[in-house]
Design a protein that fits this description.
The protein is mostly helical. The chain has one domain. The chain contains four helices and no strands. The longest helix has 16 residues. The chain starts with 13 loop residues before the first helix and ends in a 5-residue tail after the last helix. 9% of the residues are buried.
Length: 81
């Protein structure tokens, strides 16, 4: 549990409710990475859109290569996600 204020799942509405629903569908729960961004759901939605663009757009790298690079960078940075 983070010490950052978050919007409880029972109070999520509109954009945040949709993001919480996507998190539950993908992970079986609303993950903390999503919860700590819950006070700014529109900003979080833009970040998610940017991430999807980076990972899914045509380019010189395959999706697998992009995922592997992201995994290594996360590990080097000590990130669990």
């Amino acid at each position: 549990m983070s010490w950052i204020d978050t919007v409880p799942e029972s109070e999520a509405a509109d954009v945040l409710s949709n993001i919480y629903t996507e998190s539950r569908a993908k992970f079986g729960r609303v993950i903390n990475l999503v919860k700590i961004q819950s006070l700014r759901p529109e900003t979080m939605a833009l970040g998610r859109q940017f991430y999807r663009h980076l990972m899914d757009s045509p380019g010189g790298l395959s999706r697998l290569q992009r995922v592997l690079i992201a995994t290594v960078v996360s590990k080097v940075n000590g990130c669990l996600y």
